[in-house]
Amino acid sequence: MPELRKDPVTSRWVIIATERGKRPSDFGAEPERKRTGFCPFCPGNENKTPPEVLAYRTGGGAPNGSGWHVRVVPNKFPALQIEGEGNRQGDGMYDKMNGIGAHEVVIETPEHGETLASMSERRVEDVLWAFRDRILDLKKDQRFRYILVFKNHGEAAGASLEHPHSQLIATPIIPKRVHEELEGAKEYYNYKERCVFCDIIRQEVNQGVRLISENEDFVALAPFAARFPFETWILPRAHDPFFEDAQKHEYVSLSKITRELLLRIEKVLTNPPYNLMIHNSPLRETDGRHYHWHIEVLPKLTRVAGFEWGSGFYINPTPPEDAAKFLRDAKV
Amino acid sequence: MPELRKDPVTSRWVIIATERGKRPSDFGAEPERKRTGFCPFCPGNENKTPPEVLAYRTGGGAPNGSGWHVRVVPNKFPALQIEGEGNRQGDGMYDKMNGIGAHEVVIETPEHGETLASMSERRVEDVLWAFRDRILDLKKDQRFRYILVFKNHGEAAGASLEHPHSQLIATPIIPKRVHEELEGAKEYYNYKERCVFCDIIRQEVNQGVRLISENEDFVALAPFAARFPFETWILPRAHDPFFEDAQKHEYVSLSKITRELLLRIEKVLTNPPYNLMIHNSPLRETDGRHYHWHIEVLPKLTRVAGFEWGSGFYINPTPPEDAAKFLRDAKV
Fold first, then answer.
1. Fewer CB within 10 Å, N or C, chain B?
2. Could you tell me the CATH superfamily of domain B3-174?
3. Does B127 have pLDDT greater than 60?
4. Which CATH class is domain B177-329?
């Protein structure tokens, strides 16, 4: 069972893998796929993953067989374990608990060589529906307080398998970064009686200099205080705390703007590695007025170094206005 | 002039390079030294750096000539600019200010091929004295509120030059990560009426499982809630908020334990890239009872990916108890 431990200074929780802990010689080893050429996510290899928890099969077909176009399976090497209770306890001055949670993989397409940018809008939309369906299902489990949906694209962004996939981790605590955003949004709301994200959208659409693209339901922009070069956010125009509560037409619009944004990034930056995260409200403990779900895309172009680790202060070598212009002007 | 911008949600400041902003084609280009083989930090090339602000020359010699064994120069491409005033202002809902600050490079040795681990203790001690002397000098400038001393070792840790060096950045605001640590330490103090770091040292010395080494003035340990595999901290036994106020005998002890810890890391992990940061109190606004300066060393063995960026929640594949044992048992 992995262990959750809390740093007594910053109250940041970490997940410590207590079983099969990595030894010094395990770092820097080649990932398995490079050695074997085998892909467990390709059709025909369904029995190489744990049994699926969800799949969309337009033409029908049996579970764990082929014919799917989106397939969700538990992670074979989960960061958190689904069975058990939290069992919070002390260890002298420290706090810890069992590493319970869910860790699932959303296999976005049967095609090994595709990307979210090259897939059809309809297929990208189905990936969004899969995120929604899994969030709604896991939300029923009262042990979980937060679900993070994220995607690592490319080895430098942390992807250990090439086949297009996203991940979903349900945690028994509210992560620090999420808590910070919630608190910040709440503070702004308490002062202004307006949602900070709604205000951002209003100013950005008005100024236009950091806007990348927009459609009827969403805007894509480079944030004013971007930490990384070409960092981009996608925000729904309508205030909504929960991704999973979006309207059907919003998933259609979101698939369009997401696919298009990733295509712009792929073009301008020559298919860079990136991380994509859905910033969502906690499952239950939230006041819907403060928070506004959105997506953040972080291309991995620079290295996070000592200054950033020591200060939490980022140095961004590309002004977001320049990044927005490059992305906006890309022919897609 | 670089610009400091504040994220309206999380209140995190970032440094935006507004001049010579990096374009898409600038990322992934080979660093200059690889192309030219030239090192501006080697003796004989003193005129290739801005004029020195400090140097130790045991045998004497003129400024900006050879004969030095530690040399501090302004960074030729500073993240923040030394001249000017903050000039805080709004931009609609956003906040920004001029990117003023200091950015200096501490060239740790004239020998291009050495490392802090291979240098003599006496030479490592001189590097610490240089940190102290520069902090004390920059502290006089009332525009600055924090100074971060850090080191990037190896290209994957963000070092753009190979020649052993550290950096020092003075900022006109207190960075978010520092603020978080200070607030956390304060909260603990208010509840317990004891310093959280003093308590950590007490429990770790007592339990021993995460202890790596110790001497009369310092302990080196793997923290209970380590974010990264083989993350290690060096803490002074005596409570002190300021690195620059340490006693002479403490710099001697610190040079010993630091050099030895880096040697252990080099041995166990085969000279890994790493970041080293001095976590220090803000220059003035601090209540000395809460905070306890220390050093953090983060070997770069894993990639920070979507889950970490989206949640601030780290997955550490090596229990700190295992990491401590490997490092403790290393023959140095």
1. N
2. HIT-like (3.30.428.10)
3. yes
4. alpha beta
